[in-house]
Amino acid sequence: MNEERQKDLTPIQNAQPVLELKGICKYFGGIHALENVDFAVFPEEIVAIVGDNGAGKSTLIKIIAGVHAPTAGEIYMQGKPVEIASPIQARELGIETVYQELALIETRDVPSNFFLGREPTHGKLDIFIDRKRMVEETVNTLNTLGIKLPSLSTMVRYLSGGQRQSLAIGRIMPWGGKIIIMDEPTAALGVKESRKVLDLILKLKEQGCSVIVISHNMRHVFNVADRIVVLRGGIKVGERIKKQTTPDEIVKLIVGAEML
Amino acid sequence: MMDNPKSDGQLKKKTAGLPAFLRNQTFFLLIVIVLLSIVFGSINPRFLTWRNLLAVFQQITVLGIATMAMALLLISGGIDLSIGSMIGLSSVVICTLIMRGSNVGLAIFIGFGIPVFCGFINGVIVSKSKCVPLIVTLGMNYVYYGLALVISQGLFLSMKGNFQFLGRGRVFGVPMPMIIVIVMVFATHFLLTYTKYGRRLVAMGGNEQLAYLSGINVDRLKIMNYTLSGAIIGLASLVLVSRLGNVLANAGEGYELRTLAAAIIGGVTFEGGRGTIAGTFLGVILLGIVQNGLNILNVSSYFQTLAVGIIIVVAVVVSNLEKIRNR
């Protein structure tokens, strides 16, 4: 399709990609949400996926997160072909996702959210909750990340937007995920709060994770990303190393202005 | 634990007002129950006798057990409006088997198994079809009631005096139904608070989509929960049939709505994700006291229905006040 447009895309690292998608297509009935998309993530790299509404960003990350199954195409992790059939499998493969808006259960307290889906239990019977361990590990992780919350026992609904987003990101950290996906992590956050979340993303990279970020905010993208992938109408129309591009060029790719 | 003065201030502002223990709906309910008892007792001293209070407790045992099932379902974001006819179907089958000369133990076993199976079916339909459980179980209510009518042919069926222990027996002078309801309340509370299963139920009720995305097998959890609720209903049904001794197909009529009312009064929300078993049981007690009190005061049953309706609406509005304030 537009392969010829990928000028100057020098390989970032000689390393093997931790995750590689080849020729991914996703059709919802007659709608072609993704058409023959190639996408790779390298170790300790932050990749931003940008594009207009309906460009296929969410569909792409949902395929990686195991929510959607691709209509066609292959997925490789560390060079080996894998199938990601459910969020549970994605998690087992070391893929963690922070979803937009619905990242936390509002009516539950902080530790319950932190350990959602993998509650620690006492003893050999996998039945009884180890509440003490939940609280301790939550405190540890929050301290390590420098996330400050008023109280652990408050319902999450009483936390501010920034505190919630920090918590949503923080809760995926202790689980040793190699690939972290974030859908609009700074949407609806103030300047200061966004800064904190961006710092958290950089911290994840420092700790050896690869991060895939969807964002509409060019400044945030250029703040953290190493590489930027542009989708338009379900097709990958460009891929740029951050240092070799400008926000202007990316915006042009997003809207397709150069084609005119 | 972790101090951040700014966010702390913000938090306080949102929850300011009454002291914590008064804002707690469970405590509020306890006060209402005590006040109501004093009012009923001062109008008719007979209400506050040990004997009458024991009678109140006896009257609410089946409702209390069944409400535990409804609470589990509501907290997990589900509902089951077919539990009344599940009780009816189970009772009718037990009596039919006994009247046809079947072994009593076998009849009891099958009678208990039927609601378990009904619950399982409800769970499968709700989780696999992704339909609204309210409508699905409303339909199943007719299915099970219809089955009960077909089996009983609309006739009164009798236990022939068998199996009275669960409903009328006593252990150390304490009536069996009371023991069962108390055990069930503690067991359900324990399940919700201290087990992985219970916490996942509450999480699923709070945000099903996220629970799924967090790696919880939502469908399986739902089916398990509907089946467990069926088992609790099975127990309620055994207690009922054992106490009554003879039944019609509509033996469980109204239980679906009364359990729902008790749970909602107790602070369980229709949206799921919230509520306690302590509160739920106080909701059951409140319904029992109102009914018994109005009986003792010779209020006509027409007015009693009216009163119960008003209590439910008030309880729902009161429990929603916090939400409105926090907007």
What would your notes on this structure say?
Chain A contains eight helices and ten strands. Chain A has a domain of 139 residues: P-loop containing nucleotide triphosphate hydrolases (Rossmann fold, 3-Layer(aba) Sandwich), CATH 3.40.50. In chain A, strand 1 and strand 2 form a beta hairpin. Chain B has a domain of 195 residues. Chain B has 16 helices and four strands. Chain B has 327 residues and is mainly α. The two termini of chain B are 27 Å apart.
How large is the share of residues in beta strands of chain A? 15-25%
Figure out the total of helices of chain B. 16
The helix content of chain B is over 70%
| Strand neighbour order, sheet with most strands of chain A | 6-7-8-3-9-10
Q: If you compute it from the alpha carbons, what radius of gyration of chain B comes out, rounded to the nearest whole angstrom?
A: 21 Å
Q: Helix proportion of residues of chain A, in percent?
A: 25-40%
Task: Offer a concise description of the structure.
Chain A is α/β, with parallel strands linked by helices.
